[in-house]
Amino acid sequence: MQIKTVNALLSLSEQILVSDVALLAEQGIKTIIVNRPDGEGADQVNVEEIMHAAKSVDIAVKYVPVTSGMVSDEQAIAFGAFLGEAEGKVHAYCRTGMRSATLWAIHRAQAGDDFASIAAILSAAGYDVSGLAGRLTDFKATETQIPAYDVVIVGAGAGGLAAAASIRKRDPRLTVAVIDPAENHYYQPGWTLVGAGIFKPEKTKRDMAKLIPFGVSWIKTAVALFEPEKNQLLLEGCRPVKYKQLVVAPGLKLDWSAIEGLGETLGKNGVTSNYRYDLAPYTWELVQGLKAGKAIFTQPPMPIKCAGAPQKVMYLSSDHWLSAGVLNKIDVEFCNTGPVLFGVKDYVPALMEYINKYGITLSFQQQLVKVDGPNKKAWFKQVGEGAPSELIEKSFDLLHVTPPQVAPDFIRVSPLAGAGGWVDVDQVTLQHKRFDNIWSLGDVMNAPNAKTAAAARMQAPVVAHNLINALNKGQSQSHYNGYGSCPLTVERGKIILAEFGYGGKLLPSFPRWLNDGTKPTRAAWFMKERLLPDIYWSLMLKGHEWMIKPSIKDTHW
């Protein structure tokens, strides 16, 4: 946590951790204002966790969640009111501190301060609010003052960085910018192995600055608003950026708040999730500690990232309990909102062998809606046609939660969104259906493929090829076949390597004699544990298209 002082009473920072709360108390902070909505990032601590930690050190917590780029005058009034009511020092935070700084700037302008003095104070604290000039004064930026790039990429996750590297390799003359405020980048497929005690969490985390491809500009802030009619977007603080071609790849949002009571009990009371960096080690702690009782693993409605992940943790946990000689004392249950174990039927027979081996109870069309951590109870809604309205109450000793997942807020409210809030693309070319110079890949777009890192790896060269050909008015296209991969870790040392495309068509990367993807193999485990992390860091994010070079078709744009 890097604290930035605005004045004697107010400080700002990026996202804080639970452990930071005690440090803030030592510095005399009496009120924390949270301006970041829950679920924006994979390493984000929820507001309920902050409230719980703050209560023990006598700090008040105020929640003014602001969607990136949608700072309202009413929110600034609420921010100012909390400042006025506070007894002592106040600390505010969001993802980077920029939304908090924007709220303070608008609040001070509402109080009559001139913009120049507001901007100077925040500049000294490390925040550039020059983009607010048009909102708080009569100043309007001219076209020549607006930064412009050939290609702008929103999001520096797996898809965004892979696309940036592939574009630069194809045409290093292009000016390319990646927009993302995150300090760190995570290899999220590794969190399954963290939750099984096989990887240390640090192995899945690297500094973002070291991963930005050579020659690509990194704009370290968040996107606030899309203006596709102007070939422009606005950053936090209302700063505009222009583009010729736009790639949208910010990932998705983990909607923890959709489950009542979950936020305040995550990371304690036996409630965990491998879908968050800081919680995956707690999963392994719980698995090791459980000798008898009830273990529940949940899966929410689709779509979710890595649809096999809710099962992977269950199989690896059961395998550990079997090896430890305690599985016969543990009741393992899989509560899946969907009607089937896995969406591609060819892999179900092998999975069912492990369901039977571990004695797992399958409860289909049951959706987790409420958790009471201290009392170790969970409630499930029954779904499907004719389902009864009564909730099912279940007790647990270990509860692994896969949260509901939605498109990020700033995408859902944008003109880029289609039905469901996802970026609306052609599923073959990955080009936006309404804006010809906009493309999307990864978890945020609405093509009916599995949301996996392997899918993004395959999509990146497709987007790179098609974007450059469109930019140069070329006459060829690359087509994406819906490829996705899900290495289903069914026991320590064996994996069912599910590889499939649109319509559930099997798309194996290797001949059957080398790896039969419909059966568990040690070769697939070796690839998951040893090869895939290096392929991710050293090939995918650097634009090396080993085994994924796109097929090219002549056409007319």
Automatic annotation (TrEMBL):
<dbReference type="InterPro" id="IPR023753">
    <property type="entry name" value="FAD/NAD-binding_dom"/>
</dbReference>
<dbReference type="GO" id="GO:0070224">
    <property type="term" value="F:sulfide:quinone oxidoreductase activity"/>
</dbReference>
<dbReference type="GO" id="GO:0071949">
    <property type="term" value="F:FAD binding"/>
</dbReference>
<dbReference type="InterPro" id="IPR015904">
    <property type="entry name" value="Sulphide_quinone_reductase"/>
</dbReference>
<dbReference type="Pfam" id="PF04273">
    <property type="entry name" value="BLH_phosphatase"/>
</dbReference>
<dbReference type="Pfam" id="PF07992">
    <property type="entry name" value="Pyr_redox_2"/>
</dbReference>
<dbReference type="GO" id="GO:0016787">
    <property type="term" value="F:hydrolase activity"/>
</dbReference>
<keyword id="KW-0560">Oxidoreductase</keyword>
<dbReference type="GO" id="GO:0048038">
    <property type="term" value="F:quinone binding"/>
</dbReference>
<dbReference type="InterPro" id="IPR036188">
    <property type="entry name" value="FAD/NAD-bd_sf"/>
</dbReference>
<keyword id="KW-0809">Transit peptide</keyword>
<feature type="domain" description="Beta-lactamase hydrolase-like protein phosphatase-like">
    <location>
        <begin position="3"/>
        <end position="110"/>
    </location>
</feature>
<feature type="domain" description="FAD/NAD(P)-binding">
    <location>
        <begin position="149"/>
        <end position="269"/>
    </location>
</feature>
<protein>
    <submittedName>
        <fullName>NAD(FAD)-dependent dehydrogenase</fullName>
    </submittedName>
</protein>
<keyword id="KW-0285">Flavoprotein</keyword>
<keyword id="KW-0874">Quinone</keyword>
<keyword id="KW-0274">FAD</keyword>
<dbReference type="InterPro" id="IPR005939">
    <property type="entry name" value="BLH_phosphatase-like"/>
</dbReference>
<dbReference type="InterPro" id="IPR029021">
    <property type="entry name" value="Prot-tyrosine_phosphatase-like"/>
</dbReference>
<dbReference type="GO" id="GO:0070221">
    <property type="term" value="P:sulfide oxidation, using sulfide:quinone oxidoreductase"/>
</dbReference>
